[in-house]
TrEMBL record:
Protein name per its UniProtKB record: Spore wall protein 12
Superkingdom, taxonomy of origin: Eukaryota
InterPro entries: AH/BAR_dom_sf (IPR027267)
Amino acid sequence: MNYEHSGSAMEKINHGLSIIGSASRLNIGNPNDVFSYMSQVTNDFGNDDDAQVKNMAGNMTKAYTQISEEKIKFNEDCKKELELLTDIKKKITSIDKERENVKLYAYDLECSLQKEDREESERYKDLYNKSVSSALSKMNDFLGENGVQGILRRMYEYNLEFFKNSYKIMDELK
């Protein structure tokens, strides 16, 4: 490896730093993540005459390429979950409406009971019970495994899988 001023090592380092600098402005959907950039940087070092540097750079290039592939899968999985979260957020209006109905039917039921109107009381009791059941069902769906809780759990699992796989890939370089 050449260490003199403006030598090949300095050129590779400067090239790598410019790539890493631009990589810090990445977004989630960008297929050219920091790991693919690092793969390019280490690949550049693989063109060196020193056999040890060339070997290590080749191994790191492969590792960063694999991690980049893992990152693309991670991004795709997370993007799907974020889209589901957006869809679920739209259900909030319906849930709020049902909760408001529960309050209204409870009030109407109370008024009919005070009037001692048995027929009206039965009707409002039925409406109240149906509304409570619907509101609880919608809230459980929103928060449960098919809702926010499931999305957060899956996002956690995607993170865990990505970082475990990345660690394993890098650990194999030892």
